[in-house]
Amino acid sequence: MDEVFRALADPTRRELLDALFEQDGQSLSALESRFAMSRFGVMKHLRLLEEAGLVVTRRRGRETLHFLNPVPIRGVHDRWVSKYSEPVVAALGSLKSQLEQTMQKIYEIYIRTTPERLWAALTSAEDRPHFQFGNTVRIDRGDGAVAAGPDDWTVGARIEMSNPKAGFVLGSGEVLESTPPHRLVTTMLASWGEDVQAEGVSRITYEIEQVGDSCHLKLTHDQLRDGANEQLYGGWPMILSGLKTWLETGETLTTPGSLMYA
Fold first, then answer.
1. For residues 149 and 202, what is the distance between their CA atoms, to the nearest angstrom?
2. Which residues are 111's β-sheet partners?
3. I want to staple 123 with a disulfide (CB 3.0 to 4.6 A). Which of 66, 150, 159, 262 is the partner?
4. Nearest of 241, 221, 219 to residue 233 by alpha carbon
5. What angle in degrees, to the nearest 10, is found between the helix axes of 39-51 and 11-22?
6. Domain closes at, from 47, 68, 89
7. What average pLDDT values come out for the chain (262 residues) when binned by 10 residues?
8. Rg of the chain's alpha carbons, rounded to an integer?
9. Containing domain of residue 161, as a range?
10. Pairing of strands 102-111, 214-225
11. Is 186 a member of any domain?
12. Could you tell me if 53 and 141 lie in one domain?
């Protein structure tokens, strides 16, 4: 957490995060054009933000794109602020979408666990409620059996997400790729409101990598309409923080999302 505070202490680095908040997935050239400093200077600031986990990168062709990762900031919030915060509905999205362009959101977190245990948590109906707002999932493999275990997430299986206190289906999807315990790709159609359902189908990719005694989890939510409703992706920092807390301590983390159906 010291790295996060050091990274945020510099006004230029805060401006870089503001730029990525306005438009995620920018190249070095695009970010460099915003500042009256050398390319090397911008690269140095971005490297410090990456080391703090506040910025993540992804290659696209010959370019490296930079994405804001709010999970570390969420960790600061959960440690010192959330106790005094009141539950709120998701923040307003962009004022206006731009034609049919798409965007993607990338989140990263390190969790002290094994790939097998992390995979089981992501795919188990027993674990899910502890880190995803009390929600649970079940799987229809198309053979007439409805299940919810880690071994049921096979390609083509249908996913249904619900909450016992909601009284209706919150979302659905399909398994596109499944390589336990390292990679899982699914679609998602949110249905907890007409506004989010109108956004259509998006895609979620979980990538798990062992790093010593920890796991590096990268979550990519893409195929989102540019300017899509923030409710579709705004909950990921809370979910990932809850997942880390659950796997490392066995406790359920209280977040605004977890209080929705309390």
1. 23
2. 215
3. 150
4. 221
5. 80
6. 68
7. 85 91 89 87 92 90 88 75 51 42 90 96 93 91 64 90 90 95 96 93 96 96 92 94 97 89 70
8. 19
9. 100-259
10. antiparallel
11. yes
12. no
